[in-house]
Amino acid sequence: MPSPIFLVRSLALGLAFLLSPLSHAAGQVHWDYSGQGGPSHWGDLSADWEDCRAGHQQSPIDIGRATAALLLKVELHWQATEWTVINNGHTIQVNGASAGYAMIDGARYELLQFHFHAPSEHTVGGAHFPMEVHFVHADAEGRLAVIGVMLQAGGNNSLFRTLMFLAPKEEGAQSPAGQIEPLELVSDVSRVIRYQGSLTTPPCSETVLWTVLKQPVFVNQRDIDAFTALFPMNARPVQPLFRRFVLEN
Predict the structure, then answer these.
(1) How far is CA 145 from CA 101, 142, 161, 189, 209, in A?
(2) Quick one: which H or E segment has residue 46?
(3) What distance in Å separates the CA atoms of residue 161 and residue 151, rounded to the nearest whole number?
(4) Domains of the chain listed by start with CATH number
(5) Would the CA dihedral through 174, 179, 184, 189 be positive or negative?
(6) Residue 142 CA to chain centroid, in angstroms?
(7) Spatial distance between the Cα atoms of 185 and 95, rounded to a whole number of angstroms
(8) Of 198, 189, 240, the residue nearest 71 (C-alpha)
(9) Residue 246 exposure: Cα atoms within 13 Å on the Cβ side
């Protein structure tokens, strides 16, 4: 019988492909961030994407108002590994195998990949940050947990600069990044927002435990410009909260 670690890693490799913002492979339904393939039409493009239109736990949301709660501390046990930078047609995504794990709400989730949005998908009091990075995790049963970090102009972040330098300009292209430390793109994990939500791209599955860090990471405006030169706007509009609770520690 395969070991639990083998099963987790095998699942991680599959989810890294299936649950990321996907490129326009043959046979896939085309979607985009504007026009007839834009967010307001996602739920009509495929019968499998009904959650995009009718779901009641959709992401992103505005996190300007939250309820104080005692949340378990987020523990990041990420590790340096070989990463690859990919232009998948919707964003710049960074994939790595055996990248470590996070303890979120008392459960272990393996880090699969991280990718970027401009402007930020989550808003604070209705206002966007220039960018947001999403660290996508999954547990052994396929449950997802995403950590969102806001990126703000006004600093220099060597990892972000490296990734934007390596970012391929053509869809489907990829560049090896070598061993990098993703913790360089994380701020204070003790101050977070937590809520139940969804993928922010089709199929908009409502299977995601969201953790959004309250403290942004400061990066250089030139590096933000390098991303937006490739993807001027790749953020889904904020979604209704309905009856969900948004918690903060």
Answers:
(1) 11, 10, 26, 14, 5
(2) none
(3) 12
(4) 4-20+48-248 (3.10.200.10)
(5) positive
(6) 16
(7) 15
(8) 189
(9) 21
Please give the positions annotated as active site: 90
Instruction: Kindly state the tokens that stand for 188.
Output: 């204070």
Rounded Cα distance between 164 and 32, Å, is: 22
CB-CB contact of 160 with 219 (8 Å): yes
At which residue do the structure tokens 């239109």 appear? 53
Entry pTM: 0.90
The one-digit pLDDT tens for each residue of the chain (249 residues) are 444 333 344 444 344 434 444 433 334 899 999 999 999 999 999 999 999 999 999 999 999 889 999 999 999 999 989 999 999 999 999 999 999 999 999 999 999 999 999 999 999 999 999 999 999 999 999 999 999 999 999 999 999 999 999 999 999 999 999 999 999 999 999 999 999 999 999 999 999 999 999 999 999 999 999 999 999 999 999 999 999 999 998
Question: Which two tokens mark 109?
Answer: 């989730």
